[in-house]
């Protein structure tokens, strides 16, 4: 009895080749929104604002004699790290107003000399940090103006060199044309002289 065995197709033969396999579409990269980019770049500003809110809450609701107002300089110093130095000035204004409110409305407000001295010292420290920010801002503006002036000078010098190079190229081309014309005239003159010598030689021979 002859038995014929039928072989089942192997898993390797039924699998799709790598070239015929469907490829997943590449995910489109979507950039983050501008607000998130700003927060990532200027993280110091929201951190300084949060710090200012915490210090103001502690200052306005304090029940002890701890000089919380001395910490109003911390948000201003933190804002000095941001790219825009004007943020430190805005925080200095806010810290000054909150320090005055804390002195006038706080439980330690009034004619207390020590508290007034602490507030004055705190405001002085805040505006010292703001002055550093202002000095940095002026220095950046000075560097920007110097860089712009340098770029303008480089651009003017480049334009001047470009014009000089163009004029030199024109002069070289004109000189080459004149030299070529001079060579042609010299060739014509030598040919004419040779023809004249041959004519004179034939006349003398005759």
Question: Mind sketching the topology for me?
Answer:
Blueprint: H1 11-14, H2 34-41, H3 44-60, H4 73-79, H5 86-105, H6 113-205
Helix pairs in contact: 3-4, 3-5, 4-5, 4-6, 5-6
List keywords for this structure.
mainly alpha, 6 helices, single chain, 206 residues
Helix-strand makeup class: mainly alpha
Number of E-state strands: 0
**Tally of alpha and pi helices:** 6
Kindly estimate the percentage of residues that lie in beta strands according to DSSP: under 5%
Looking at the chains present, what oligomeric state does this protein adopt?
Answer: single chain
Termini separation comes to: 127 Å
Q: Roughly what percent helix?
A: over 70%
Q: Give the overall pLDDT as a whole number.
A: 76
Q: Mind describing the biggest β-sheet?
A: none
Order of helices and strands: HHHHHH
> From the alpha-carbon coordinates, what is the Rg to the nearest angstrom?
44 Å
Q: Identify the overall geometry.
A: rod-shaped
Poorly predicted parts: 1-16
3D architecture notes:
The protein has 206 residues and is mainly α. The protein is 72% helix and 0% strand. The protein has helices at 11-14, 34-41, 44-60, 73-79, 86-105, 113-205.
Explain briefly what this protein structure is.
By secondary structure, this protein is mostly helical.
């Amino acid at each position: 009895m002859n038995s014929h065995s039928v072989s089942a197709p192997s898993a390797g033969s039924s699998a799709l080749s790598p070239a015929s396999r469907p490829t997943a579409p590449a995910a489109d990269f979507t950039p983050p929104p501008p607000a998130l980019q700003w927060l990532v770049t200027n993280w110091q500003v929201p951190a300084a604002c949060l710090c200012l809110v915490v210090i103001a809450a502690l200052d306005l609701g304090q029940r002890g004699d701890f000089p919380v107002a001395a910490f109003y300089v911390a948000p201003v110093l933190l804002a000095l790290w941001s790219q825009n130095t004007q943020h430190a000035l805005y925080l200095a204004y806010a810290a000054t107003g909150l320090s005055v409110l804390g002195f006038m409305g706080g439980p330690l407000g009034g004619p207390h000399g020590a508290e007034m001295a602490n507030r004055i010292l705190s405001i002085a420290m805040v505006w010292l940090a703001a002055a550093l920010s202002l000095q940095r801002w002026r220095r950046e503006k000075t560097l920007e103006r110097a860089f712009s002036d340098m770029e303008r000078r480089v651009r003017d010098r480049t334009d001047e060199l470009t014009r000089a190079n163009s004029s030199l190229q024109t002069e070289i081309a004109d000189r080459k044309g004149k030299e070529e014309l001079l060579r042609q005239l010299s060739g014509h003159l030598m040919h004419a002289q040779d023809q004249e010598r041959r004519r004179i030689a034939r006349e003398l021979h005759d």
